[in-house]
Amino acid sequence: MSHMEEQKFKDSAPEKDHWKTKAPYKVHDKQDDFHVRYEASCHCGKVKYQLSREEPLDSKLCHCTTCQTQHAAPFQWAAIFHKDDINFTHGHHDLEWYDPTSKSIAHQLPCKVRCSFCHSPIMDEGRNMILLFPSLIHFKNDQEKANFKPRLHMFYNQRVMDIPDGLPKWTGINEGEDSHLIEDSPPELVKEMERKRVEEQKKKVESGENK
């Protein structure tokens, strides 16, 4: 589609369909110059996307009750990216939205995005950023996965289980006036757990289990 044709489509598209022409979706933009570093997909494979950034802007573990309910899990692993860092290669029209605040299924920001077939969470779309779920990414080696290692816990006071991993644990989104650090587990316990984790990882590598 030429630039003129694309602009014509944007001008004629109904207001409710404007999401199709903007990042992170860009349905009618081939993005031939997109530098692919990672590939990801939902559980059924109908929704597929690529990422161009080697490391996320940030990576967090969220314990808020909304994430617990939406993911049916004790917490959520999420990585933050710019909207232009993602390129959907398949399944633009297999997406559905949900706004937990208004309980609306219209595309209104911020909202949660899922595959409409298998209902896998794809991302949280904010007004300026997107929050992706690394468990959907097809990591090719341990280093790629390490690039997404969580750096902190947020809304830890809403947790349903303790995680003594030595990472900073905040009562809110991050450091700020309304967010405070919660005392972590004893340093000795954290060191012992990390030592065991390193030993287990080393054994997996030596046995070829981690290839």
UniProtKB/TrEMBL annotation:
PANTHER family with a match to the protein in the record: CENP-V_GFA DOMAIN-CONTAINING PROTEIN-RELATED, GFA DOMAIN-CONTAINING PROTEIN
Family matches, as InterPro entries: CENP-V/GFA (IPR006913), Mss4-like_sf (IPR011057)
Family affiliation: Belongs to the Gfa family.
Residue ranges of domain CENP-V/GFA in the record: 38-171
Protein name as it appears in the record: CENP-V/GFA domain-containing protein
Keyword Metal-binding on entry: yes
Positions of region (Disordered): 1-22
Any Pfam family the entry gives: GFA
Keywords: Lyase, Metal-binding, Zinc
Record-level Gene Ontology MF annotations: carbon-sulfur lyase activity; metal ion binding
